[in-house]
Protein: Methyltransferase type 11 domain-containing protein
Amino acid sequence: MFAIDDRDLDGVILDCGGGASGFVAEARAMGARALAADPLYAHGAAVLADRLSAGLDQGNAMINANADRFVWEWYGSPERRQKMRRDARSEFLADIRRHPDSYLAAGLPHLPLADESVDLVLCSHLLFTWAGRLDREWHRTAITEMSRVSRGEVRIFPLVRLGDGESVDFFDALQADLRAEGLVCAVREVPYEFQRGADHMLTVGKAKGGLL
Structure:
C-alpha cells in the first residue's frame, strides 16, 4: 500500500498509528530500522493480546457484512487475509515484547520525536479513513507534525473514507493548506487495493530550494 522499495529501507521508518501491524517486526527482519507510534501501546503487550483477538473478529465480521466494498485479487480469499492478519498480530506481539523501545505510546497530532529524526513516515487507515470524525484542521495539524519529524517523505494511505469509499470533500483544500506551509503534495497510485477504489496514496515532503 506504500509502494516501498529497497531504497526506503535504508533509513529510519516511522509507522504512525501503527496499531497491531507487523510492519516493524518485518522491517527489522529485513535489516531496516523502524519505529511505530500509537496510543494503544500504553496498555502493554498482555492487555493488547486480549484486545486484539476481539478486534480481529470484529474487523472480519464488518468485512463479511460488506463484501461488495472490497476487492480480493491481492489477498486471494477472505481466509488468506484472515491468516495474514493473525500472523501479523503474532509478529507484532512478539516484537513489542522483545523490543518495547521501538513502540512509542503516542498519537497524532503530536509526536514525541525531534525534528527530522526519521527518514520516512507511513500512516495507514487513519487520515481520510476517519474523515467523518477528524476534520480538515486536524488533518492539517497531523500531516504538518509528521512532516516535522521526517527528513524525507510522509506517505498516507488510503485517500477515501471508511464505509462509503468516497473521496474526502476537503482533500483539495487541505493540499492547498499544506502547500502554503511549504510542503509538496502528490497523489500516487500504488499496487494494492482492498477497499474498492482505494489504490492511491498521498505523499508529502518539504520543498527543496524554496520552490513549491
Remarks:
- The mean pLDDT is 90.
- The first strand starts at residue 12 and ends at 16.
